[in-house]
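It would be a great kindness if you could assist me with a short task in structural biology. The full record is reproduced below for your convenience:
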Amino acid sequence: MIIHDFSTENSILNQFLSELRDHSIQKDTMRFRRNIERIGEIMSYELSKTINYTNEIVTTPLGKKEMSLSSDSLVLCSILRAGLPLHQGVLNYFDKAENAFVSAYRHHKDNQDEFDVIIKYLASPDISDKTVVLIDPMLATGRTLEDVYKVLKTNGFPKQLHIVSVIGSQEGVDHIKTIFPENTHLWIAAIDDTLNSRGYIIPGLGDAGDLSYGQKL
């Protein structure tokens, strides 16, 4: 796996990430969503440098100009519901991409620490021979991405895979390295050291879905 860890370099992305982590600032849900969206935009610009391009002639009011334009067919796949703000950030830059959505959530039976990943919904185009971007803001254990990838492959096998996340755990990153093809790109704003007993990233930022859209039952 090819890992692009944005925390290893100084950039304005760190300002947005610090506001996502800050327990007082993150109470502003609109700002929280927008910061995730802006991180998605920054990552998408960097991701765009790795896809394929072809030369095309563009006609202006005064003449013609040859330009290098993206030739890949992209499918953006978001994991509901936490993935929606990040999905929008990526879509802002890849506005011609097709889109897929997967409903996946943790089920803690009897409120125990152990959990199963429940997938109840998939809306996706054919992904055969396309570039798929899997979008999930929190890469905790990596099991959700693993199960989503298995379900998504029922609609074809992609040419190239990218994963876009905001924060991951080292354990989760190590896990998906064993699941996804070697040439998969992981774009991530930060990798934290540990998980707690319930599989949440420490220090992380909390529950991205709840912070974006309010608490669920």
Residues 100 and 125 are 7 Å apart (CA to CA). The helical segments are 13-21, 29-47, 84-93, 143-152, 170-177, 208-213.
